[in-house]
Every structure is written in structure tokens, then in C-alpha cells.
Amino acid sequence: METRNLVRIALLAAFIAALGLLPRLDLPIAAGVPITAQTLGVMLAGLLLGARNGALAVGLFLFVVALGAPFLSGGRGGVGVFFGPTAGYLVGWVFGAFATGWLMGALPLQSRLARALIASLVGGVLVIYAFGIPYLAFAARLDLWKALVAGSVFLPGDVLKAVAAALLIRSLPEKGYSQRP
Amino acid sequence: MLAATLGSRTWLHRVPAGWKLLALALCSVFFFQVTAWWGLAAGLAGVLALYASLGRAAVKRLALLAPLAPLLVGIALLQYLAADAATAASVVLRLLLLVLAADLVSMTTPMLAMMDAIAPLLRPLARLGLDARRLGLAVALVVRFVPTLFEDWRRREEAWRARTGRRPSIRLLVPWVHDLIRLADHVGDALDARGFSSRK
Questions:
Q1: Which residue of B has its CA nearest to A62?
Q2: Domain span at residue A85?
């Protein structure tokens, strides 16, 4: 792997960690809704680095968290986070970043905004929930429907983050981020 | 604070990381089988006793569980409505027990010791192109650049407040992300210029 890719992966992982330290951001589209921004970083990792490197960035972030760095929002870290009821979401982040990056490159749409929006909604919300909800059901001994209800409290915020990720990507230069310029 | 480990050294620090991880794995396999709430309560009491044995700083760490509280309350309510109080109690107690036990390992194991302990598990991945030296560099870069990136955000936030008098908008993320990629490529070039990639 080229050094350039390695460093991009590492800095995107650091970016996801830094997002967890931000207290809160105000979204102009929904003033006052507090969001913890880390899944925004997961979507951006896929959108900026592509499927493979985006997934590697998220995987590296989770690896550093597992080693003991308190980089999840709220200052959580260590192996404990992978024993909690939300561990499935964390594992889903890796696949979510992959799906987001893959869709961003593969969707046959002209509009970059539309591609980024669909990629973030499918990869950054749907795929992550597909891992998070079943594990929540297993860890909490709930049936799937109840887990779906319990897990959906994050849904409005996550949809807003997908919109934010797409708007953000539209404002960034198109060339030179996914490959070597 | 850049580590989940406790500042002071305790008796659990002296136990090798591999043993602690093995104990944690056995503990989680065991308590996933236990369904009686009193069995899980006893286990939780045991873990809490271990916390107490590590001193006041360890007990204070329990406050970090606060973000988990709403979810645990929700799970308990759903279980209570669907089944009964005993089931609700056992589910919540099991989750608390496992998270606290795992936190105990992280609190008493420095990152380097943890990395050494899991290095044998990563060896098979070397064939897939993941060599330990590059992984080590990547981990070091992440830990090194988190405070840098956060400090960078704080400066942008301050400038934004000074210009607008309002709270930071999500629009501020655009230049931050843009400069992040440029910073990454500078660091990559700097590493290459110092012969990083030629030293296979």
C-alpha cells in the first residue's frame, strides 16, 4: 500500500475520533437538533476514500478504540464498547463505510449530490442498522421488532447526518480525493 | 486525557494483558449462558468488588457509563412489558457486568501492552498484506493527529464566533475536511521523503 493511502486512512480515522470530541453542531436544515457526529465521519470516510480505504479507515479507528483510546463520543473506549448492546452498530460502521464508498462510485447518476445522498443513506444508515439492530436484539434478548423500535431512536439524527454528508461532499472538489491526483 | 488506562498502577496492571483478555473472554462466554438474575447480580457484585480493590480513581470511572443509561432503561422497559421483571433485570445486569468487566481490562492495560498481546492474532492477516510495521505507524498517526485535528477545529470555531457571533454551523466542516486531506498528503510525502516506503 502506498504511503499516501496509508496516511489518508490514518487521518480519516483520526477525523472520526475528533468528531466524537465536538460538543455539538447546529444543522441549518434542522436548527437545534443535537447530533453526535461520528457516523457522519463514517459516511465521509466512504465518500472521500472509496469503498476499500474508507472501510480500512473505520476499521483502524475501531482498532485504536479497542486498544484503549477513549475516542467514541462521550469518552468511551477500550474493549468494553464491544461488549455493550450497541456493539453491532460499531461493526456495521466498517461495512457501512464500504457500502457508501462503493455506491458513490457505482451509482449511475449524473448529480454528485444525489449519488452522495443515496450512498450515505444506504451505506451510512441502512447497512449500519442491518448490523446494529440484530445484535441489539441478541444482546438485549429482545425480538427483532422490539429491537427495531428501540434502535430507531437514532434514525432522525442519522438521516440528517446523511444529508449533511452529501451537502459537504458537494462543496468539496471532485477530483483528487478518491485517487492519486 | 488520551488513554482509557488509569493513571495510578494497581495490582491488576501487573497481570499480563493476554491473561486478562483470556479471562474476559471466558467470563463473557460464561455469563451469556447464565439466565438467573441473582447469578448475574452476584457476578456484577464481584466485578464491582474488583473496581473497589483498584482504588477511588477506578470507581470514579463508573461515571463514564452514563451515556449507556438511556438505552439500558429502554431495554429494561421493553423486557418488562414483554416478559417480566426477572427477565428485564437479568438482561440489564448481564450487559452491565460484561461492559464493566471489559472496561476493567482496558483500565489496567496500556495501549502498547494491548497491542503486544493481540499481535499473535494479527499474524495470519500478514498474508493479506497487513504488516505489523504499517499497522503500528497507522495507530501512531491516529493517536498523534486526534489532538491536532481537534485543536484545528477549535481555532476555526473561535474565528467563526468572532466573525458571526453565532454558534458554529456544519458549514465549517467543509474547509476542515478539505485541509485534512491536504494535511494527510503532506504527511505522506514527508514520510516518503524520509525513506519510509523504501524500508521494506
A1: B139
A2: 3-170
